[in-house]
Amino acid sequence: DARVTQTPRHKVTEMGQEVTMRCQPILGHNTVFWYRQTMMQGLELLAYFRNRAPLDDSGMPKDRFSAEMPDATLATLKIQPSEPRDSAVYFCASGLEGGQPQHFGDGTRLSIL
Amino acid sequence: QQQVKQSPQSLIVQKGGISIINCAYENTAFDYFPWYQQFPGKGPALLIAIRPDVSEKKEGRFTISFNKSAKQFSLHIMDSQPGDSATYFCAASGTGANNLFFGTGTRLTVIP
User: Are strands A53-56 and A10-13 parallel, antiparallel or unpaired?
Assistant: First the structure.
């Protein structure tokens, strides 16, 4: 059963530290999305890629967040430096050409102290 | 600005009852309307989706009703079961676009 794999599942770190979250999209999917979920804002799109090229990262704070796809099997979301307000669950999703339907991973629960 | 508005925020239904969740949108360019189900500690999972060329789509106990003129769509869960207790999100996407705009979610509790 193909699925999106995210690591780590949980991360607790102190303010100012660098955080890297990883995502392995479903094999063959060429569109990858990063979302952030909080109680206050719900599900927000941070960025997405098609064929490893960033198409839209307007939802991402540029000064501290960066997203990359080093290869077709790995997407990364990095926060440097991290702040308490970055505490949230970060989801990766992948899809075929056109993006739909999107298949979500089980997320990385991030806590910044 | 919330592109997709969802209600109610929470819903309690007796086992065997009908659960109804409503969503509304403004952007007439939207042409894909999925519903996602999310259990605690898990990512959202696609439940059912509809495009505006039909007014209703049914899959098992789950039905989407779509009203293009009113720019509204709803999820109906028939014969609701305790296992349906989860958070449900509606979403919308436009032609040629990849990103989904999500509603704020409805926490459904089905009481045995």
Answer: unpaired
